[in-house]
Amino acid sequence: MRESWRSRTGFVLAAVGSAIGLANIVSFPYMVEQNGGAVFVMMYLASLALIGFPVFVSEVVIGRAAHSSPTGAFRLLGRNWAWTKTGTGVVLTGLIVSSFYSAVAGWILGYLVEALSGRLTSFDSVAGASGHYKALLASPAWGLSFHALFLGLCLFVLFGGVRSGIERASKVLMPLLFAVLLYLAIYGLTLPDAGTGLRYLFSPDWSEITTGAVLMALGQSFFTLSAGQGTMITYGSYLSKKDNLVSSCIPIVLADTLISLLAAVAVFTTLASTNVESTGGLDLVFNTLPVVFSRIPGGFLVAVLFFLLVTLAALTSEISAMEPMIAYLVDEHKWSRSRAVIVTGLSAFILGVPCALSANLMSGWAVFGKSILDAYIFLALNVLVPLGGLAAVLLVGWRWGMKSALTELGQGTGELFNRRPWVAVYFRFCIKYLAPALIVVVFVRALGLL
Ligand code: PHE
After folding, report:
1. C-alpha–C-alpha distance, residues 182 and 202, integer Å
2. What are phi and psi of 288, to 5 degrees?
3. Which terminus of the chain, N or C, has less C-beta within 10 A?
4. What share of the chain is helix, strand, coil (3-state, %, to 5)?
5. What pLDDT digit, counting tens, does each position of 276-324 carry?
6. Phi, psi of 367 (to 5 degrees)
7. Per-residue confidence at 252, pLDDT binned at 50, 70, 90?
8. Distance from the CA of 123 to the center of ligand 1, in angstroms?
9. Torsion (CA) 31, 37, 38, 44 in degrees, nearest 10
């Protein structure tokens, strides 16, 4: 028999675990920094409501309707060869995401070891921290071994299956993560210049708004919810018809947003109070924060907690990026779960090797002027993931049809759409028209065609 979640809470926690990851804790703060502070935060919140959430719900409802991997789900609802192949394309996107995601998460795991060794609290300048970062990245063995170790940890959870693996791990890890982040944010708030950090985050200066920032916010709202690559279709496929989808999805999106905001509060209050210059991008985590950790009291503990937390967040995301492929092999090819887990893990490892080597042995390689890692990220985030999300909303809105989809979505909600007709209007409008239109704009823009 096909596996399912033990409880609705199990699904909610696993989906929260998937959604919360490097995009919340690592990318969100630096995107805020690059895109005008509070203005970006506001745009991000708006795009979550208008695009992220409708796409997310579409994927979960596709999964629950079909109770199968994205391939089977697209076959059932799309009813032809092209839709079925699109479903398989979505599964492959998941595999690509899991390959570079693991390479980057490997660095975070490596930094946890650095933090434990005390090295991350020994820098008095960004230049010192950055020299250390570059030296680590220059070592192929360092990148490869943490890529492998991180994937190994993920496989360990995945072997356990849906209930005793993913569901159980998420139940422990998610509350722990929240507690650690809350501690860091409260810590930041008690620092002398916390107010400056908060104003930067929450008091928008609308003159700073740029098209680039709007589009970045759209893309971010999408990736942070793990939409567009089969994860939510697969997680939705382990739900039962009795479960209320609407009230399950709302806390997931809220928790994801809360964590991004908490991470930003922790980062910007601490930065404001320590006067450390930020160099932007991934450097924020690898170069700037270590200097902050070196200056604040209790920095050692804060550094260890921070990297532990990000590793855990990345772990529950990584397993969710691999699950569509595993479900595909189990559902479509009748493989045993363990065989599917091993083959998926090995494929993610092999595909991720060039990413782990992109700053050292393969640093001379360039794809369209980008390093190998950047090319993977670009291909996944700017091309494949938007296409996967577009496919989901088009499938629901135009092929399967809003009427059937709303009937499926309404199951288990106790006649929600009769009691509150505007909820149905919101879903119909966003899924059928707004989300596809906005995704096309982001997509075209991201490819530099606009
Ligand atoms: N949502 C995850 C994050 O925020 C990334 C992710 C995307 C994970 C897609 C799985 C699938 O880091």
Report:
1. 18
2. -80, -50
3. N
4. 80, 0, 20
5. 777 667 777 888 888 888 887 888 988 898 898 899 889 999 999 999 9
6. -115, 115
7. very high
8. 31
9. -10
Mutate to test the pocket of ligand 1, among 28, 224, 323 (most ligand atoms within 8 A of CB): 224
Give the number of the atom of ligand 1 that is nearest the alpha carbon of residue 256.
4
pLDDT of residue 408: 92
* Amino acid present at 294: S
Ligand 1, residues at Cβ distance < 6 Å: 18-19, 21-24, 97, 223-224, 226, 229, 231, 317, 320-321
CA of 128 to the centre of ligand 1 (A): 31
Report pLDDT digits (tens) over 15-40.
999 999 999 988 898 889 888 889 99
Phi, psi of 415 (to 5 degrees): 60, 35
Closest-CA residue, ligand 1 atom 6, reads 226
Choosing from 150, 320, 379, 387 the residue with most ligand 1 atoms within 8 A of its CB, the one to mutate for a pocket test is 320
SS3 of residue 366 by DSSP: coil
Two tokens at 181? 């982040």
What angle in degrees, to the nearest 10, is found between the helix axes of 168-189 and 299-333?
150
Give the gyration radius of the chain's Cα atoms: 21
